[in-house]
Amino acid sequence: MSAFVVRESLSDADRQAGFAVRREVFVVEQGVPEDLEYDAYDATAVHVLAVRRADGAALGTGRLLYGADAAGKTGGAEGVGSLGRLAVAGPARGLGVGAALVRAIEDAARARGLTAVDLHAQTRATGFYERLGYEAYGEEFQDAGIPHLAMRRRL
Fold it and tell me: Which residues form the N-acetyltransferase domain (predicted)?
């Protein structure tokens, strides 16, 4: 049995716990401006949260955009969702939390009838996503001053 569980974040408390992980990883560790980290999509996205079984502490989070919300991130491709804001707290890295979050987001995408998932990966994380079946496409670009590549996986 795994030391953590991943679930869709349906409660306000779950979402706030996920936002705290995002703040720790993106704002504090990586220096992303807080006003760029949180956006209007947070209100309509499907959020997932990884929590430690022993005490319920938040270990990681991610979100799925779909439908019209995903169109700007996926080039308007029909049936393609957008995985984003994937963050794992420092002490939980290397435990499989990130991969479990990606698979949970893919499951959420399938449940909504999507056939693929796109993401914008920090270039230093592309190997992680490649191991999960994602393929890079297009040119490298900057997001919040960090180099990224677009990647996609068919479901």
Answer: 5-155
